[in-house]
Amino acid sequence: MRDKIIAIIADVLEVEASDLSEQSSPSSIESWDSLKHMNIILALEEEFDVELDDEEITDMNSIALIILILSEKLG
């Protein structure tokens, strides 16, 4: 799942997946702005068939946290 999440984020941000790590965040990836963040959320919701609430979306401020929150959501 980790690799799939990173691939989706890389696709939305238009960067190479190899340029991303679990420590990557909006502060370390120039193209990761608020609009791209929402596009990431939408892509992840569609791919994993989940619905994220506002608090979860706000907490997803790094790839590590995105993976953690999605893992918890998917059980």
User: Any low-confidence stretches, pLDDT <50, length ≥5?
Assistant: none
CATH H-level superfamily:
ACP-like
CATH topology: Non-ribosomal Peptide Synthetase Peptidyl Carrier Protein, Chain A
Protein structure class: mainly alpha
N-to-C order of helices and strands: HHHH
CATH C-level label? Mainly Alpha
Span of the ends, CA to CA: 12 Å
DSSP summary, beta strand count:
0
Indicate the radius of gyration in whole angstroms.
11 Å
Count of discrete structural domains? 1
Give helix % range.
55-70%
- How many H/I helical runs? 4
- Using the 3D structure, state the CATH architecture: Orthogonal Bundle
Q: Into which percentage range does the β-strand content fall?
A: under 5%
The main β sheet shows up as: none
Average pLDDT level: 96
Shape: globular
